[in-house]
């Protein structure tokens, strides 16, 4: 069982999403009778679920009297035809919540499903799949939760969760050493420092700095990544290596087999296709 963010952390966004969808008046729903009905949300394909508690919260915000039953759990693989959610009560309440609920559930489950494909692709290598900060504003916590449902690992949730010195930071500071030393002076002792390296020379510079906890290998070839792992291992340093840069599903296993510790995949949150789920009322 995966524990999603507390509803208080995203309830305000859900309210805004509902108001945006409703506009001034739902003339369609108002035109049909409001009566007790049962609705079922069903998977239209094989997928990994994420966002069921969020879907329930959408219904609760729309019509608190609705009875919502979760038939599956987040992180669960389901096959086409599986009932994942059941709602009983006001037909108007169900109809008003339907589209926002489905949009969120399909999007979050899409992220979980794509993450699981990456995780399965590198199984047995010892590497792990990371997300990035390339998230949808307002949905970051939920999208990163969906990554966990798919078996991935979260990178920084906020800028305050760690130091990641990328090429622009290095340029502004005047090089790797200057940037790392400045970061160590500025950040609390328990905050880790990671440095982006575009060349093996930059990696070597990082290996000479005890303040560096990890190195992001940016857009390196497989040969360069293997050499980076060998350099790290020969140095005796225990810093982690993260591969990044246009990591496709087809290439993921080859990258993981170079010996890197993490593969960071921006597509998990910025390009995952929504899965197909539908709501049908009896």
Describe the structure.
This protein is α/β, with parallel strands linked by helices and 282 residues long. The chain is 43% helix and 19% strand. It contains eleven helices and twelve strands. The chain has helices at residues 11-22, 27-30, 52-62, 91-121, 140-149, 167-173, 176-186, 200-207, 222-235, 249-256, 267-270; strands spanning 36-43, 47-48, 67-70, 77-78, 83-90, 128-130, 163-165, 193-197, 214-218, 240-244, 262-264, 277-281. The strands form three sheets. A six-stranded parallel sheet has the order 6-11-10-9-8-7. A four-stranded antiparallel sheet has the order 3-5-1-12, with helices on one face. Its EC number is 2.4.2.19. One of its GO terms (cellular component) is cytoplasm. Hexamer formed by 3 homodimers.
How would you summarize this macromolecular structure in one to three sentences?
This protein has 282 residues and is α/β, with parallel strands linked by helices.
* CATH C-level label of the largest domain: Alpha Beta
Straight-line distance between termini: 30 Å
CATH architecture of the largest domain: Alpha-Beta Barrel
Unreliable spans: none
**Strand content range:** 15-25%
Number of DSSP helical runs? 11
